[in-house]
Every structure is written in C-alpha cells, then in structure tokens.
Write a structure and sequence with these properties.
Three copies of one chain form a homotrimer. Chain A is 48% helix and 13% strand. By secondary structure, the first copy, chain A, is of the alpha/beta class. Chain A has one domain: UDP-N-acetylmuramoyl-L-alanine:D-glutamate ligase, CATH 3.40.1190. In chain A, strand 4, helix 4 and strand 5 form a beta-alpha-beta unit. The longest helix of chain A has 20 residues. Chain A is globular. Chains A, B, C: Its cofactor is Mg(2+). Chains A, B, C: This is Hydroxyethylthiazole kinase.
Chain lengths: 263, 263, 263
C-alpha cells in the first residue's frame, strides 16, 4: 500500500471525515471524499477502493452512495468496496440502506457484533443478542459472509475476520482505541486501501493488525488505561501509523488467540 | 457521568462535530451524531440528552432538529436538551430557528452575551448592547431564564449560570480556550451529558467548571498566552478532560468571584 | 492580520472545516463557516474575506456559494474572496462550478498545477499536461491570472504566485505538509485573511510563506521525512502558526529560488 498509494473514495460520516483522511495519509494511501452523486459516480469508477460508511447518512448522502456503488460495480475490473453499517438496528433510514447496500457485493463489511447481527436480521438471518456466546457470534458472522459473498470483519476485544469458510481472530489493540472517535470508521477506510492492492480477506486482517498495533504503540509500553489522555493518544496513533515498519505489523498476526474468545 | 456514560445525541455544526465527540469521549460520555429526521427522531427518544447547535445549520439540518426536539419532549420521562444558538442576531435562518426552538423547553441554553441578548430580543425581551454593564447583562440572562423556564449559561471572562432565581458565576478558564475552534460548542455537549445524570443548573455549572479547568491545565502553570501553541493546547485539553479527578473539578467552584464582574 | 483579526467566511469542504478554523485561529484571524444561502448572503457582505472551496461541494452547498459570492461582489467596498477549485478536471459538478465562479472576480485562485490547468481549459485557455516544462506551467498560470483578473497561487515543490504580470516563486515547505489533510485548503483561508488587510498578490505570497515555514518548523531541524509522525507534525504546525514572529516569516521570501524551477 505504501508504495502504490491507492486512492480511496470515502463517502463517510461528517464526524470522522478529517480523522479518516489523516489515517489514510499516515498509512500511505490517498483519500478523496466526494458525496455529490454526479461527481461520486465518476470518482468511484477510477478509485482504487470505495468506502461507504452510514454514520451520519441522510437521504441526500445516500444518493451519492448509490451512484458510487453502481459505478464501482460497473467498472472493469470492478473496484472493491467496504460497507460500514454504523449503528444500524433501531434507526430506520440507515438500517434499510444497509440491507439494500449489503446485497450489492461489498468486498468487506466491517462492524461490531451488534451491527453484524442487525445486518443478519435484515437480510433474513439470525441476529445477535447480548446472551450470545462467542461461538454463536462467530457463527452469525460466518453466515453473513457466506450469504452475501463478502468478507465480514467484526470488531471487539478480539477481532474476528471471516469469508464464511476461513475465520481469523486478531488479539491486539487497546481500550483507548474506543475513546477516540472514528477509529473503527478509519479502520474501514484502511481495509479499503489494502483491498485495492490485495484480496479482501488479507486486506481486512492486515488493516486490523495495523490499526490495533498503532493503538498499542500509542498507549505506550507500561501504561494503563488511565495514564495517557485521549489527546496524546490520538496524536501518537497517527504517528505510529506513519512510522511503524510493515514487518512489525505482520508480527501481530502471529500472536496466540485465547481459547473460546470471539469478536 | 463517568460511571453511567450517558448517550448524548448531538445535532451540531460540521466544524466541531469531531472535536465535540472527542470531548464527550474524553469526559466519559458517549456521543452519537444523527441528523436525518427519521433516524434522529428514534435516537433522541432513547438518548440520555440532546444537543441542538445552530453553528452551521441549514434547512435540511433544521428538519432533523425539529424531529429530535419533538421526540425528546414526547419521551416519558422527557429527555433533557441543550440549545446552543451560535452566532444568532443578524443571520436570519438561525435567528428564527433559535426563537422557535427556545420556546420548546430546552433544559439549558448556552451562549455568549451577544447570543443570549439576541435571544432575549427575539422572544420579546431586551437585548444586550456593547454599553451594557455587567449587572445589566446578568439581568438579561435571568429574564431569559425565567421567561423560557430554562437554565441560561452565558460564557465570557467570567461565566454566569442562572435559572432565573439562583445565579452562579464561575471564574476559571484561559484565553487559549477561545483560540481552539469548538470549545464553547463542546461545552454545550458536556452540559447535556451532565444533564442526563443531574439537574440542569448543576449540570451547567459542573460542565463549565470541568471545561474551564481543563483549559487552565492545558495552558500550563507558569505560561502566558503566547507560550503554548494552539495545537499543543488542544491535545492537552483533551488529556485533562480524560485524566482530571472529579474532586479537583469541584474545587473550581469554591473560587472567589471578582466583585462587579459578569459574563 | 494578528492585530485586526479579520473575519473569514469559509464555505469549505467537510473534511477540513475544523482544521481550517484552527489554522485561522492560530494565525490570528476569526473563522466563520456558514453554508445556508440565506445566512451566507448576510455574513459574506460583512466579512473581511470569503473562501469558496469546492472540495466536497454538493448542489445544496453550491447554492450557498452563489449567494455569498453575489454578496461580496455587491458590498461597498467589495469583499475580497478566494476560490479553491479542489480536484476539478474530471468531476463534472465541481468543474462546472469552478468555471462559473472563476468568472465572478475572485481576488485569488489557489490550486495545484493540475487544477489551474483544468481551470485554464474550462475558461478557454490551454491546460497543463504531465509533460509540461516548468516554464510552460508558469505561462498557464500567468495566462489564467490575466484572463480572469485574479491572482493565481499555484502550489507545488516550489510555489508560484502571479497576477499575470508579476510572478513570485516561494521555495519553502516540507513533504509532510502533503501528509496532513487540508493544509492546502487552510492555506487558501489564510490567503483570504491576509487579503482582508492587504492587496491580493501580497496576501497570497505572505500566506504561502507563513504556511510553508510553519511546515518546516513542525518537521524539526534535522529531521527527514520518516522521523516525525503526521500526528505530531500537525500539532507542531498549529503551534508554529501561533508562535512564529512575523519577521521570521518575512525572511522566507528572501531565499534564492533554484533556476528553472516552477510550481
């Protein structure tokens, strides 16, 4: 990714647009945020990847998403794209859009267990409730991946990435990653950047490792949750994305995963 | 607030959405920014508090605000909400919206003397001109609070918070707080987070103390205005919100207030 | 600028709105972001300068831009404004808007060689292709400046600023300036702030010197591109804008320019 600097077209939420762009630039990719349907259609067809994030979606923005998804699917070869169904479930507009978009072939769907469960329900499968065991949660993710033909990346204490057949767990990260807005949304954009240069399963795994390791580096070696403020943490997180060598990131994937754990 | 992590639904301006979310996360609350009217109506009814900030309001965003305000007022029990009438006075769209929304029962109205004065004028009271004395300014704030049944939090060199009967002044803060965009807007969101767990007057006072003290901590002990850059200041401000113990924040409220001073 | 603190009305892209506001505040100006056509018309007429940036333009935002441009041109005296035609060329909505707006008398047009070339093509001149020599690129910029009556500021390894008759090159900056989103967009806003207090050619040159020098300061003295992360760089960049004395900025303009170089 760092050598080819893929262009990632992001139609994303207004809260995290700046942070997402800075994460992509730090990681070596090139962000472009274009929402207007007419312009989005042109850009999506020539980008290396597309991100569709529903975090602050409105009907106006959804029109741009539709145009961009149609363009990436019509391109030859098709352009890989990532769907991030932020906070779907109870909110009607975004829940409907997620169900509509999920059927249009995203390379990767990224969300937490609640969002992936809501997507499962919305596309005819079974959801995730709070009593679900780790194995049951993993099964929901695998079912979504198989039924939609997408890689599913489910974030949590342990991250789970699956194409429905192969399932990988990543044990990395830091609690402060949940105290800076937009880390998960930016992770989706990095998955897109990597999907521009490799297969979706590898892209989702490598992006997760990269972002989680940057979080660990940002928190510092001997620190606990309370000792680094979120302002300093966010600065160091971008620094780590800029400076961490690729071989250190790859090491994250060789860590053992606790038995019985899931997303 | 840190133990219950209230969900604050923010319909706020595009300049400060990211900073507001990070301030809420640093302070221990959970932000959610949803503008679409259909989704905003659902979210507002289940949130701990709502923030309506007019900083970059458009007619499209105003529709989401109307839906959210109706939902919080229809919820049982009602959800407290904060109105921040940014830059009202000369600009017609936002000035009209502020007058409309102010009559719908915000728990807290947060603004500077000019904005509170404009709101007074728009709701039939007397405004604030540049020749007003501190006592006259305080009287305008108290009249607005009484006529609308809201707590009014008027920011300035000295912050003034009043429910129309009881008036509290907070002497804290630092000039650099005005050199980082969105501090006042984020303060409104923290007032919302605290209003989810206590009464509006206490919430407005405690939020003001928390934000002002974080500004002092960020500026550093021996510094003057010119010695800390605004980049470092903003990072340290978020760090201070993350790390400052609650009992230190409470100390701010025991400081003496200079005689004759007002917002 | 630091003494008069000019109000800069920015109708700019959602990715960089926060960073632009913080850059203006750090540099001593006062930002105001208002997109709604009704409010934008009132604000633009009383601002010190207007910035129109097409980075995430939609048809809704374009309506606010049209209203604001009409207001600055109708004001007496007229208010100077800056056009930043971000990523025009292939994208139809923004390319058409840039051609429309460029004919309405911007004091300064700021962009890279590709954008200025696209503007030249769209207004009947000759574009810039990748085989163009530095002298050919400079000629395109000078032709655009003369045909539109605007100062053209073309960013690149060497920045070129011209009013069509006088052409100045600024040799300053650092590669990390391209790894933080919105530096170029924020530069346009600083040009606006300075155009509120001096002539457009001087404003564009001084803003370029200020932003480039802040980038050098942020990167640190002995550093190379890889040693400072982009998080730390962005913080130090704002610090440098806050703290660098004006006479140091002026020194940048006395540097020799490499022979044969252009934007």
């Amino acid at each position: 990714m760092r050598s080819s600097s893929p262009l990632v077209h992001c139609i994303t939420n207004r809260v995290v647009a700046n942070f997402t762009a800075n994460v992509l630039l730090a990681a070596g990719a090139a962000p472009a945020m274009v929402d207007d349907p007419e312009d989005a259609e042109v850009l999506a067809g020539v980008a290396g990847a597309l991100l569709v994030n529903l975090g602050t979606v409105t009907r106006a923005q959804a029109a741009g998403m539709r145009a961009a998804i149609a363009a990436v699917n019509a391109a030859s070869p098709t352009v890989p794209w990532v769907l991030d169904p932020v906070a779907i479930g109870a909110l009607p507009l975004r829940t409907g859009l997620a169900a509509e978009f999920a059927r249009q072939g995203p390379a990767i769907i990224r969300g937490n267990a609640s969002e992936i469960g809501a997507l499962a329900g919305g596309t005819g499968g079974r959801g995730v409730d709070s009593t679900a065991s780790p194995d049951e949660v993993a099964e929901v993710a695998e079912n979504v991946a198989r039924s939609l033909g997408s890689v599913v990346a489910m974030s949590g204490t342990v991250d789970l990435i699956t194409d429905g057949t192969r399932t990988v767990r990543v044990t990395a990260g830091h609690p402060l990653l949940t105290r800076v807005t937009g880390v998960g949304c930016a992770l989706g954009s990095v998955m897109g950047a990597l999907a521009a240069v490799t297969d979706p399963l590898t892209a989702a795994i490598a992006a997760t490792a990269m972002v989680c390791l940057a979080g660990e580096t940002a928190a510092g070696d001997g620190s606990t949750d309370g000792e680094v403020g979120t302002g300093t943490f966010a600065v160091r997180f971008l620094d780590a994305l800029t400076l961490t060598p690729a071989d250190e990131i790859a090491q994250v994937l060789r860590r053992p995963v606790p038995s019985g754990s899931a997303a």
